[in-house]
Amino acid sequence: MDAGIFGQVDDFKTAKAWFKQAERDLRASEKSLGDRDYSLCNQQARAAAEKALKAAWILISAQVPDENHSVMELARMVAMDDIVEEAQARPIGSRLHPEEEGARRSRIIAQAIIDELTPKLGT
């Protein structure tokens, strides 16, 4: 992939590092789901979504985003409107929904974000 279309090569490497960590967080959330640790699964899925979106922002802007932890706001910043709609319907990784359904929904949203960005950043 020609990293030049996304900015400096270092920006691409930084984005790729964020994305790889997002993939690891998503895999960890699957284990937590299997262990029925729904709160931890939510937390890991949220981290995966957040890191993947921050990787996309780095590609677009050549800047590391600030301390923004809102999946909805990050999705807006990178023009992933379908994710914004999902996050509005039910916040991803909400501590208010530590049951299995909420954990599964958080993982689905995080997986959708990663799937959409994989052609640009995946291994």
Structure report:
- The chain is mainly α and 123 residues long.
- 72% of the residues lie in helices and 0% in strands.
- It contains five helices and no strands.
- It has helices spanning 9-34, 38-61, 71-77, 81-89, 100-121.
- Residues 1-9 have low confidence and may be disordered.
Please sum up the structure shown.
By secondary structure, the chain is mainly alpha-helical. It contains five helices and no strands.
Please supply descriptive tags for the structure shown above.
123 residues; mainly alpha; Four Helix Bundle (Hemerythrin (Met), subunit A); 5 helices; disordered N terminus
Question: What's the SSE blueprint?
Answer:
Blueprint: H1 9-34, H2 38-61, H3 71-77, H4 81-89, H5 100-121
- Kindly state the number of beta strands: 0
Q: Helical stretch count? A: 5
What is the CATH fold-level name?
Answer: Four Helix Bundle (Hemerythrin (Met), subunit A)
Q: Please write the string of helix (H) and strand (E) elements.
A: HHHHH
The averaged pLDDT comes out at: 82
End-to-end C-alpha gap: 11 Å
CATH class: Mainly Alpha
Helix content: over 70%
Strand content: under 5%
CATH architecture: Up-down Bundle
Molecular shape: globular
Assigned CATH superfamily: Nucleotidyltransferases  domain 2
Contiguous runs where pLDDT drops below 50 for at least 5 residues? 1-9
Please outline the major beta sheet. none
